[in-house]
Give the backbone structure.
Amino acid sequence: MTTHEPTTDASLSSARRSDRGDRIFSGLARAAGLTILVSLAAVFVFLLLQGLDGFHADRQYYEPSASGFLGYVLKLLFGTALAAVIAMVIAVPFAVGVALFLSHYAPRRLATPIAYVIDLLAAVPSVVFGLWGARTLAGLSQPFQAWLNHHLGWLPFFSGEVSATGRTILVAGVVLAIMVLPITTAICREVFARTPRLNEEAALALGATRWETIRYAVFPHARSGMIAGMMLGLGRALGETMAVTMVLSAGGPLMTWQIITSNNPATIASNIAARFNGEDVGIQSVLLATGLILFVFTFAVNFLARWAIARGERKFA
Amino acid sequence: MKSTSISRGRRAAAAGTLALALVGSLAACGNNDTSGSGSGNGSTGLSGTVAGGGSSAQETAQEAWRAGFGQANPDAKISYDAVGSGTGRENFISGSYKYAGTDSAMTSDELASAAKTCGGDPIQVPVFISPVDVAFNLPGVKTLNLDAATIGSIFAGDITTWNDSAIAQQNPGVKLPSTKISPVHRSDSSGTTDNFTDYLYQASNGSWKTEHSSDWPTTKGESAEGTSGVVGAIQGGEGTIGYADDSAVKDTGLGIVSLKVGSDYVAPSAEGASAGLAASELATGTPDTVMQYNINRTTTDPSTYPLFLASYEVACQSYDDKATADIVKGFLTYMISDAGQKAAAANAFSAVLPADIASKAQTIVDKIGS
């Protein structure tokens, strides 16, 4: 194949111009990526340096919940995970259902305003969610929680003495679910809409119902996207501070399965918010150390999920 | 042609800006009247920037004080960062704050470190008193008489229903339901918790066994974030009882407890809180310029209300910079003065400092110089 070398001045300079544009853009993109990595590393280093003393601080900072850092942070991780699991159990089915409805079932005219309203949920400040949860939702849900305690109190989740105000980790989980919903719905909706039309039409042509089409054509293609959406939502649920601090009646780091009493496990984020501006500044390094553990935990969960997906996809191929 | 008119315009603009700057700096020079009259009349015309911070209980009062002081001294820029008493004291010792507000007096270690920073003993004076209410939510009951021993038992979890005999005995004629008691406490570190636990420890005759602490010492009971969180939690449930600053509780319609003082039951009041501080002794063993009160929670005088929060202001006796020293001295003088205390009482619903305590504090503040 013969290649035509540019011989005129004009085409030489135009090649140089597009080459320069190419280099500038790739440089900018690389710089942006590096900035994000550097920022993340900077946060990690900050937590590590400031929190290092917290791993072996004076016993009084861990009491009365634990006698050392390990017990203290494990109980806090338990509370964080419990609130996040309650949130995800409620939010994920809703998010996937709403996303499917918007991408496959709803008429065009209805889908757009509904999607707009759901995205608006993400714009509500978390303080507002916290105030609403503590003042309104908790009070409204208290009779329901009392009913759960009365009739299903033999289950460990609903045992114990039910809270009089309703400000429990169950309600905190519900508030977190509402905050997680917009992110996960938006991502799932995009991913479902990108399913190759050919796959869907092939399934329909083979006689599949709408639900079977979704099961066999949409979900396999959308799996990694759905997991990405869930990971983003989980990240928000694990790290949410203000809403949980205001709604939850936390009894400090605590390990309990009871989710409708006044004595709830604190989450790492709510514990930091509650204790940081205290009388004794010595606790600040302990709190930053727990923040570091949360950072590492979120990273590990994300990594595990993506690794599981990658393995699953390799099996498929 | 074009360039000449542009450069002419630019020259005019530059000349105008220079003129304005000249006039402005002359005016600022003229305002440097540093007449610090130490008799509480307040200074005027001070200028400079001073950073301070600390107790969040003082936050509203600090806003009122900055507003009042700023009227006479519009060029004095004072900032207050409500980061909490512990961080406030730490930043004062490190030098980033020139003055700090703190709900607890400085410990001897902190006094030693502050002395190094200040190049001499620091000063510490009480500036803010606020009564703390014990509030509850029982439909139809607006007030209850309780003594410290009963309150201690309630918050320790030993008394669990409202119609318990200990409560009924002190309130004959009040219809008490058999609802469960849900005590509410602060989830965050707080001077209010510190003073409430101190009151319980001193006055409850053994039913409350833990010494004063800014962090609630037990894990049981309902916990809420901030004063407004506690009030919201009390309002949100039936049979709840908690403690919160008087300013947040009054006008909410919640029931308020009258505490037993001597043989009477006393309702919360600003005058009672002032009298309570007046009835307390100064701690010994601190430098002359450091006032620290051991609050007397077991007084028997019915004109006192023993459950209140007393907050201090700390500063150095000398600063490197004369402008800073003048502003800190003028500001603290305003805080302790009649006008300042009245402004705080109007805005933050605090209690005014008793006259003899204010004059003692003023003598100490007068020592600020450079």
